[in-house]
Protein: Olfactory receptor
Organism: Vulpes vulpes
Amino acid sequence: MERSNHTVTEFILVGFTTDPMMQLVLFVVFLGVYSLTVVANATLIVLICNDSRLHTPMYFFIGNLSFLDVWYSSVYTPKILMTCISEDKSISFAGCVCQFFFSAGLAYSECYLLAAMAYDRYAAISNPLLYAQTMSSRLCICLVVYSYTGGFVNAIILTSNTFTLDFCGDNVIDDFFCDVPPLVKLACDVKESYQAVLYFLLASNVITPTALILASYMFIIAAILRIRSTQGRRKAFSTCSSHLVSVTLYYGSILYIYSRPSSSYSLERDKMVSTFYTVLFPMLNPMIYSLRNKDVKEALKKLIWLTQSDV
């Protein structure tokens, strides 16, 4: 990829604060959040792999979401931790490109994966007797592969268009990672063609999956209303509640950041929203999908019992 401005060889990440004491506090907080993210998601993956009761399409997608969240969080948090404790706040041009690429690729992949999970819930509720046949292993694997392929192909488009912008000498990024809003602020001139690319990617990676999710839930609601018993309706809805919470939190923050014109970017406000979907959300996902899930709780109890027995 060819750079249009050869004077920028590195960027300076401002982070959250310049106060040394607050930086230390943030280091402890982010280290705790990252540790919990890795442990919680890894535990959920182990449970899904080891317990035969969790060998279903729904848990296959949840396991892949946990894997993606560990990877996603690892793109940002280690660099945040280094920025908090080190006087060197710089990130090389190549490092910024890599972080930006994987950030976009994983974010887009998660959008597609959440849409696939919505279809899975629709298949489970609309026709439970044919659920296993409809959501075959081959289809599940294809949906995951398509999610990653679509995410990273679009990340290539976004990365190539962003890093061919002209940066006007200033290399200070008022954020904790390389993202569209702060990089656009550094650009000399953002052409309409670049804004068009952003809207295209927003439509293909966020709006389209959102429409698919909404369509799936319209069919899910229709299927639930056809269930005669109140208990049956409640049970059917409970299988979707975790996914619905996850989708609302993730898509809400993504749409807030990237659905506005570049002229309306507010870096301080965007920084807080970005922190939620890049650092906090990957920690919350395993809790959302397991706290009220009896199968996961039973699998965890079994794993603890087996571990204690071996000791």
Remarks:
- The beta strands are 10-13, 90-92, 172-173.
- The chain has a mean pLDDT of 86.
- DSSP finds ten helices and three strands in the chain.
- Residues 51 and 302 are 9 Å apart (CA to CA).
